[in-house]
Amino acid sequence: MVLEHTAERNGKLGSFLRRELRLSGTLINRLKAQNAMFVNGHAVHADYPVAFGDVVSVRIEEEEPIYPAEDGPLEILYEDEALIAIDKPADLLIHPSRTRNTGTLANRLHYYYKVTGQKCAVHPVSRLDRDTFGVVLLAKNAHIHALMCMAHDAKEIEKTYEAAVWGSLPQTEGRIDLPIARLDPMGLLRGVREDGQPSQTDYRVLRQTERCSLVGLHPRTGRTHQLRVHLSHLGCPILGDPQYGTEQSQAWSLERGLTGQQLCAVRLSFPHPLTGERMTVCSRQKPILPEE
């Protein structure tokens, strides 16, 4: 990936890299070692004096991941030189862990980048649980990832989910404002607790049947398992959820062939890190709301 800027002032190259191109000190040091900084097409050092009208550019390339590349299906919703959005299926981890370095979305992306000749790495901007499906956005290098993290901290990234749930919500729309904490300090499960972290979820009922509901969800905070915990606490667990569902909701889900939780990241809206243009990417998947 090449970033380019035409200078509108005089100054040292390092100043342009930090201010106009918004590069971190760590990345600038890496570019120095790679001789990947240029003015008017010529490799230069960070102290090079840039003049008005000079073209400043850098070449950003990522090292190849250490985990194996694996061929596998990828439903690409959007791609450019900076970002890629994937429609993730259920039952797929996003990234390898210390105990497992195969069979993940990152392994498939690593393979895709190799066969398409892209020197990119896998930097998730949005993350989904293994069994949650829908839009996942990933940056192709650490610089773009850092810019997207800044957008996230500024609350400029909007995530919209849909879930098929057991029962009916207390109102057709509202906000769930309940703190979430680990149930066990060493465990993965969360629950609503007074000493938990503040957590807010906006919801809107999209469709109602006799026993179930289709609900649109907008998390205002990003706690682990937040949507699943909030809905379960209200007595409306997500259909097919083996961890936060009730015996009744799980049995009903299994009777109708729902072996996975019906939670989908249906839409992601964000400013493009290079152009600032507001973008929206939508999943082609939807949660299943069974007929009675």
What oligomeric state best describes the polypeptide chains here? single chain
The radius of gyration is 22 Å
Residue stretches low in confidence (pLDDT < 50, at least 5 long) are: none
Average pLDDT score: 94
Give me the CATH fold name of the domain at 160-264: Pseudouridine synthase
| Succession of helices and strands | EEHHEEEEEEHEEHEEEEEEHHEE
CATH superfamily of the domain at 160-264: Pseudouridine synthase
Total number of strands? 18
Gross CATH architecture of the domain at 160-264: 2-Layer Sandwich
The 3D shape can be described as elongated
Q: Can you give the helix content as a percent range?
A: 10-25%
Q: Which CATH C-level class of the domain at 160-264 is it?
A: Alpha Beta
How many DSSP helices? 6
Major beta sheet, specifics? 10 strands, mixed
C-alpha termini separation: 52 Å
Q: In percent terms, what proportion of residues is strand?
A: 25-35%
Secondary structure layout:
Elements: E1 2-6, E2 11-12, H1 13-19, H2 25-34, E3 37-39, E4 42-43, E5 49-50, E6 55-59, E7 76-79, E8 83-88, H3 105-115, E9 123-124, E10 133-139, H4 142-153, E11 158-166, E12 173-177, E13 180-182, E14 190-192, E15 200-208, E16 212-219, H5 226-233, H6 247-255, E17 263-271, E18 278-282
Parallel strand pairs: 10-17
Antiparallel strand pairs: 1-6, 2-5, 3-4, 3-6, 7-8, 8-10, 9-10, 11-16, 11-17, 12-15, 13-14, 15-16, 17-18
